[in-house]
């Protein structure tokens, strides 16, 4: 019992290892909730209904990511390096985000009908109406960046966790009343982030505030950095979502339902990479190149080991678990899931390598790589989806992710000033991991340093 209490105290510590553990644990619980949510939706709506739901809810987060104009990245960078100006930076970033969100609403309303040509008018109109909820998503991204810069990872994780809880509660409640449809399910997905955002803002009221000191200079700084970083958001979002946009536009709602389920299952191992990236991105800013490379290299190799083992375990059970929980109608998603599990490891490795470029103030390099990835994936999707359907879509993004890893490795020396870290795990990495796990009860343990 004493050892358990000691371990729990370590989990509440603010060291890098503890924060990674907290973030990973949050994501594991979140994945469990999302799994339960996915099962409820799949069982009650079937592949076609699940596909229609995806067509409704994909647009607000997609458009929000496209129209952030790099402000979350800019706020994270400057709030971390200019602590005296944090309040003013936060104020200006939130106001700029709100202004950009108005442009985003109009663009979304115009674009949606052209992307949902295979869906009925009611679905199209509902998807347009849901665009009114997208500004809150943009504000959430900006607030999340500020919490990362301020090392408020408890609230950062809370903001990600609570919407999923409320969504599951809403879906179960609607189901019990026999009112679950793609439309009501979409409301359950898109409405909860609004109260969660307001609650999180209240929880971090001690670090946020309103200040217009040097507003013009701070706005200029944010916009300059954002202009260089927005390509990361735009190209990253399009390259990551291009497959879903193409599937929803070229294939049936049932195919979209199968692809959505395969995609959600295959994203599970990404929690290993995402948790590490969330933490080291803010903490790596300002490190000397040699130290930065050592930490990024070790983080990449350790997360690659964890992500690969995670993917292999999921691939082994998916043929049995997927039809059992989701229903026989989703059996066709098994092969797609296997391909996407390989892709997520490559994508995760690329995301950790990208930290080195962002931490040294080189977002343009990440934008360049994202652009190259998009140039690769879009033609592949156009060629492979008509010929191989969902297998083609999954293969296209796998090739794109591998190309992104290669590009980061090639550009590393010219951008960072040191040789790219080796991606091959060593015995020293394994010994390091075992040593850290054995010392996990110590509050001072740092996972990757």
Short structural description:
It contains 17 helices and no strands. By secondary structure, the protein is mainly α. It has one domain.
Q: Into how many domains do the coordinates divide?
A: 1
Shape: globular
Radius of gyration: 21 Å
What string, H for helix and E for strand, traces the elements in order?
Answer: HHHHHHHHHHHHHHHHH
Helix content: over 70%
Q: What portion of residues belong to β-strands?
A: under 5%
- Average pLDDT figure: 82
Major beta-sheet overview: none
Total count of strands: 0
Content-based structural category: mainly alpha
**Spatial separation of the terminal alpha carbons:** 29 Å
Unreliable segments (pLDDT under 50, ≥5 consecutive)? 1-13, 441-447
Total DSSP helices: 17
Task: Explain this structure.
The chain is mainly alpha-helical. Helices cover 82% and strands 0% of the residues. The chain has helices at residues 2-11, 16-57, 59-66, 71-81, 86-115, 121-130, 134-149, 153-176, 182-190, 193-203, 215-250, 253-266, 270-283, 289-326, 333-359, 363-416, 427-438. Helix 2 runs parallel beside helix 8, helix 5 runs antiparallel to helix 6 (121-130) and helix 14 (289-326) runs antiparallel to helix 15. The longest helix has 54 residues, at 363-416. Mean pLDDT is 82; it is low at 1-13 and 441-447.
């Amino acid at each position: 019992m004493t050892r358990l209490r000691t371990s729990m105290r370590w989990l509440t510590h603010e060291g890098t290892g503890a924060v990674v553990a907290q973030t990973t644990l949050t994501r594991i619980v979140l994945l469990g909730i999302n799994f339960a949510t996915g099962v409820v939706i799949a069982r009650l709506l079937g592949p076609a209904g699940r596909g229609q739901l995806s067509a409704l809810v994909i647009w607000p987060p997609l458009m929000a990511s496209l129209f952030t104009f790099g402000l979350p990245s800019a706020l994270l960078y400057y709030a971390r390096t200019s602590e005296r100006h944090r309040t003013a930076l936060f104020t200006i970033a939130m106001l700029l985000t709100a202004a950009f969100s108005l442009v985003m609403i109009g663009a979304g309303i115009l674009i949606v009908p052209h992307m949902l040509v295979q869906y009925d008018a009611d679905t199209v109109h509902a998807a347009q109406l849901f665009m009114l909820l997208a500004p809150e998503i943009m504000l959430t991204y900006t607030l999340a960046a500020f919490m990362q810069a301020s090392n408020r990872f408890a609230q950062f994780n809370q903001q990600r966790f609570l919407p999923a809880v409320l969504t599951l509660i809403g879906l179960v409640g609607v189901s019990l009343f026999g009112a679950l449809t793609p439309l009501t399910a979409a409301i359950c997905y898109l409405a909860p982030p609004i109260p969660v955002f307001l609650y999180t803002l209240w929880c971090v009221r001690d670090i946020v505030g309103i200040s217009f000191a040097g507003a013009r200079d701070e706005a200029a700084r944010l916009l300059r950095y954002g202009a260089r970083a927005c390509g990361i958001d735009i190209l990253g979002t399009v390259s990551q979502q291009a497959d879903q946009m193409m599937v929803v536009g070229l294939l049936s709602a049932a195919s979209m339902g199968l692809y959505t389920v395969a995609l959600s299952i295959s994203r599970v191992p990404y929690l290993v990479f995402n948790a590490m990236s969330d933490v080291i991105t803010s903490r790596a800013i300002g490190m000397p190149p040699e130290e930065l490379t050592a930490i990024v290299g070790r983080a990449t190799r350790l997360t690659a080991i964890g992500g690969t083992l995670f993917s292999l375990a999921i691939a082994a059970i998916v043929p049995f678990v997927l039809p059992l929980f989701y229903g026989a109608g989703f059996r066709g998603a098994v092969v797609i899931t296997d391909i996407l599990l390989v892709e997520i490891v490559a994508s995760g490795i690329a995301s950790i390598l990208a930290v080195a470029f962002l931490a040294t103030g080189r977002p343009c390099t990440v934008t360049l790589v994202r652009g190259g990835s998009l140039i690769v994936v879009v033609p592949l999707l156009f060629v492979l989806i008509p010929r191989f359907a969902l297998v083609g879509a999954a293969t296209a993004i796998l090739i794109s992710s591998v190309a992104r890893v290669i590009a980061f490795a090639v550009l590393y020396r010219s951008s960072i000033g040191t040789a790219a870290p080796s991606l091959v795990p060593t015995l020293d990495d394994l010994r390091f991991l075992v040593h850290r796990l054995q010392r996990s009860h110590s509050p001072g343990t740092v996972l990757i340093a």
